[in-house]
Design goal:
Elements (H helix, E strand, L loop, with lengths): L17 H5 L1 H20 L10 H13 L5 E2 L9 E2 L6 H13 L3 H26 L2 H12 L2 H7 L5 H20 L3 H17 L6 H13 L3 H7 L1 H21 L9 H7 L3 H5 L14 H8 L4 H18 L4 H13 L9 H32 L4 H16 L4 H4 L3 H20 L9
Antiparallel strand pairs: 1-2
Helix pairs in contact: 2-5, 2-6, 2-7, 3-4, 5-6, 5-8, 6-21, 8-9, 9-12, 10-19, 13-16, 15-16, 17-19, 18-21, 19-21
Length: about 425
């Protein structure tokens, strides 16, 4: 069995007035929601979706499902813009379709729902912070998330980030609670949540080796617990099964997540992103690469197009092994830097630097010490590190993009806050060890 107690860093203790403290989580949630709704109102709650955008694709698929037309719409380089598709994973559009069934085709309502999901992240951060650290760290991290600029900017979009944020936080909370008190119920819950995460964002596949390693390290003394852990991927596969069966019937092929993986791989692994400073470590749309354009447009079929893209990507990677390490470094730098590109609006660049910069620095300082602390105590908080590392792996294989990092920023914030509080305690009491009060 693991130690069920959270690992307390040294800290500045909040006032203990019961009623005042009990209201803090609700207050943080309300502040977070008000800020996101206010920013949405400034942006325009009914502003149209941009042509060719990810948002328009999610919306089109959702509205078609709400009308009973199935999961259909557009995909790149396919003439028929109303075909049955698997271009994007269905999770976000399924949620939006449920909203449209109730509210009609009102994009404003979905935007409000996403603001609520983003604010809900504060409450989930509090739960996770209490499990892994303590009340002070949990509340401080949630307060930071309430005013987190990237979350505010993204809240009013029809992208997958807010749903992915809530789904991943819920999975991590379930995992930590399972580690504290293993049970069939919690294993089944974790499996369902893992499957839902994959339906929202297929990049969660990078979690599998890290979760397996975490489970072995955490439970190697208990074969019974490891047997329960084996239920998690099995249940996740069952959650994916309806989507897989549907794609087999539509395309006659095994498509567990989406039909865009090959294209994404090519976008981040090609001649241009390896040599052009503007794109180094980033991505470029695959048909903007001259030598691939005609071959990608020729199939007029999203599945065949993706196979062509994957073949080109694998060929480039296998024939440019000398670029593996430089590209990996560039991708990690691009994915985690607090410095946005010069063409980005100045307010966004400044907010990213001032918010993410200090958090990144503190998280880097505390990453290894907290990992060692968790492992030494056999505390499941090391699951936070697994979440961060899976995003780094995603960057190395595909490309660096600040938006993709969004879903793991809460774990960085928690580690950063715990580190700062410990350093402050160390300043006050030089003999203080990590985790001591």
């Amino acid at each position: 069995m693991t130690n069920p107690q959270a690992v307390p860093p040294a800290r500045v203790v909040l006032p203990t007035h019961g009623r005042w403290r009990a209201k803090l989580p609700q207050s943080i949630f309300v502040v977070a929601l008000v800020l996101r709704l206010a920013f949405l109102a400034v942006q325009g709650i009914n502003r149209p979706l941009a042509a060719g955008s990810d948002e328009l694709e999610y919306d089109t698929y959702a509205w078609n499902m709400a009308q009973g037309h199935g999961y259909r719409g557009m995909s790149p380089d396919v003439t028929d813009q109303d075909h049955l598709t698997a271009y994007r994973p269905p999770g976000p559009s399924l949620v939006y379709a449920a909203v449209y069934l109730v509210a009609g085709h009102r994009i404003a309502v979905v935007r409000v729902v996403n603001c609520v999901l983003a604010a809900l992240g504060c409450l989930l951060i509090i739960v996770l912070g209490r499990l892994c650290f303590d009340e002070t760290t949990a509340l401080a991290a949630a307060a930071i998330w309430a005013v987190w600029p990237v979350s505010i900017f993204l809240s009013g979009t029809l992208l997958s980030e807010q749903l992915a944020l809530v789904a991943l936080l819920s999975l991590v909370i379930a995992g930590v609670r399972f580690a504290e008190r293993p049970s069939v119920r919690l294993a089944l819950l974790a499996g369902v949540l893992l499957g839902l995460n994959l339906l929202v964002h297929p990049s969660r596949i990078f979690l599998f080796p890290l979760l397996a390693l975490w489970a072995v390290v955490q439970f190697w003394r208990s074969w019974r617990t490891l047997a329960l852990v084996a239920l998690v991927p099995l249940v996740a596969a069952l959650v994916l099964a309806p989507w897989i069966v549907r794609n087999e019937r539509v395309f006659g092929a095994f498509i567990p997540f989406s039909s865009s993986g090959g294209s994404v791989l090519l976008q981040g692994n090609n001649r241009i992103v390896a040599t052009d400073p503007e794109y180094l470590g980033y991505n470029i749309w695959d048909t903007e690469i001259p030598e691939y354009r005609d071959a990608l447009r020729a199939p007029n079929n999203e599945l065949e197009r993706d196979k062509v893209a994957k073949r080109f990507a694998v060929e480039w990677i296998s024939t440019h092994r000398d670029r593996w390490i430089p590209m990996a470094i560039a991708k990690l730098r691009r994915g985690w830097t607090p410095f946005l590109q010069e063409h980005t609006a100045l307010p966004q660049r400044l907010s990213m630097l001032l918010a993410w910069g200090p958090i990144l620095l503190a998280a880097l300082i505390g990453f290894v010490p907290w990992l060692i602390r968790f492992l030494r105590l056999r505390h499941p908080g090391s699951l936070l590190h697994a979440m961060i590392l899976h995003m780094a792996a995603l960057n190395v294989v595909f490309f660096g993009l600040a938006r993709y990092r969004y879903v793991v920023e809460p774990y960085c914030i928690l580690i950063a806050v715990a580190t700062v509080i410990w350093l402050w305690g160390r300043y006050q009491r030089p003999s203080l060890a990590l985790g001591d009060r």
